[in-house]
Amino acid sequence: MRKIIHIDADSFYASVEMRDDPALAGKPIAVGGAADRRGVIATSNYEARKYGVRSAMPTSRALQQCPALVIVAPRFDVYRSISKQFHAIFRDYTELIEPLSLDEAYLDVTDCQQCGGSATLIANEIRARVRAELGLTVSAGVAPNKFLAKVASDWNKPDGTYTIPPDQVAEFVRTLPVSKINGVGKVTTEKFRKMGVVTCADLQTIAVEELARRFGKYGPRLAQLALGIDHREVKSTRLRKSISVERTYPQDLETDAAILDALGRILEELEHRFQKIAQQYRPSARFIKVKFSDFTQTTMDETILDHSCPWLSVVDYQRLLLAGRARRALSVRLLGAGLRLEPRLTDEHDDRDAIGQMKLFVDA
Ligand code: TTP
Ligand code: MG
Q1: How far apart are the CA of 228 and the centre of ligand 2, in A?
Q2: What are the backbone angles phi and psi of residue 287, rounded to the nearest 5°?
Q3: What is the DSSP letter of 22?
Q4: Is 43's C-beta closer than 6 angstroms to any atom of ligand 1?
Q5: For ligand 1, what atom is nearest to the CA of residue 46?
Q6: Which of 160, 207, 234, 272 is most enclosed, with most CB atoms within 10 A?
Q7: Ligand 1 contacts CB of residue 11 (under 6 A)
Q8: pLDDT class for 96, splitting at 50, 70, 90?
Q9: Top mutation candidate among 6, 11, 45, 55 for ligand 1, by most atoms within 8 Å of CB
């Protein structure tokens, strides 16, 4: 059972502008482009929302609805730096952070020890720290999964926390309107309404086969969400510095043949794992780690200078391993192989090479 927190800042850009300019206090404000330049509203404060001023609305229309509206130009560099400050606070609780935008993130606090392990207390502590340290308010949803945590963060917004404990999930979803399901927009809500489906309880009565027929691949997922089930993991986007695979052997490896054989299997696994992130990273070095029977360990690093050779070249790893093993006349207890990584720029021209290199390794 996971413990997920979804954090969402309240009227984010507008709150930042109000914080930094006390003259805006108490006024309806919107952050966006100027009306005479066909600008649109990025967001508005809660005062302006009373007049129906909403995100994505043309500024000219917003001004018609709320003539006193103060339009403030966005300062994206400031919002980005505040987003980093949010994350610095989150990281005091968990490394498992998945940002959805500058002001929104999922946190997996399942293994978090703070606040006696209570996700609700952690959420409240984070909210209090954001207020004290950054002068802004955020709302939090706490639930056993991402879907419900996101719904919950909206429940007591602004400046609130809402928790859906595991034993209240069934009851919570029963009355939850299907329109609250992420991906169920106006069109789908209307489609559901014609089927007599308004709440998740209504949705639960529709057979999965029927949902699949009407909604395709999304059908079975809808059936799960209607029950409050969501298995998606919080995917941390923290930059990786390396990727590696290690194995501790039940019996120490004695011979070169046994060690090289073990290395082959480790490299296969490493290749499999690296392939999943090869789009985002380029290796800068390969390394081998060996722990000997007396528990001493050694690592061998080799910078990759020639990127036209396969990164996961078996012979290069074998050479590193044999050099490391030669450092002690002992059998091997643990073996590891890895790549040090650097982020790949999105438009880097050797993307095609990367795919070529993976193939070379598979063929080797
Ligand atoms: P949201 O979290 O959707 O909105 P919000 O933080 O302004 O208000 P709420 O209290 O309801 O959470 O979006 C975060 C920021 O992203 C928002 O402050 C401005 C920007 N944004 C746009 O630029 N365009 C848009 O259409 C939306 C929805 C948001
Ligand atoms: Mg927000």
Answers
A1: 23
A2: -145, 155
A3: G
A4: yes
A5: 10
A6: 234
A7: yes
A8: confident
A9: 55
Residue 320's pLDDT is 96
pLDDT tier at 211, thresholds 50, 70, 90: very high
Ligand 1 atom having least distance to the Cα of 56:
26
pLDDT of residue 153: 98
Please report how many Cα atoms fall inside a 13 Å half-sphere around the Cα of residue 289, on the Cβ side: 17
Region class of 112: left (phi > 0), else alpha (psi between -120 and 50), else beta: beta
79 lines ligand 1 (CB under 6 A): no
User: For the residues 7-26, what does the mean pLDDT come to?
Assistant: 97
> Can you give the pLDDT at residue 275?
86
Least distant ligand from the CA of 12: 1
- 165: preceding bond cis by omega (within 30 degrees): no
Active site residues: 104
In sequence order, which residues have a C-beta less than 8 Å from that of residue 297 and are 6 or more positions away? 289, 290, 291, 334
pLDDT per position as a tens digit, 244-263: 999 999 999 999 999 999 99
Give me ligand 1 centre to Cα 13, in Å.
7
pLDDT tens-digit readout, 113-157: 899 999 999 999 999 999 999 999 999 999 999 999 999 999 999
Q: What is the mean pLDDT of the chain?
A: 91
Q: Which two tokens stand for residue 217?
A: 């691949």
The H or E element containing residue 299 is strand 297-303
d(Cα 284, Cα 265) in Å, to the nearest integer?
22
H-type alpha helices, the chain: 12-20, 46-49, 59-65, 76-90, 119-134, 146-153, 169-175, 186-194, 200-204, 208-215, 218-226, 256-277, 314-325, 351-363
In this structure, which residue's CA is closest to atom 7 in ligand 1?
A: 11
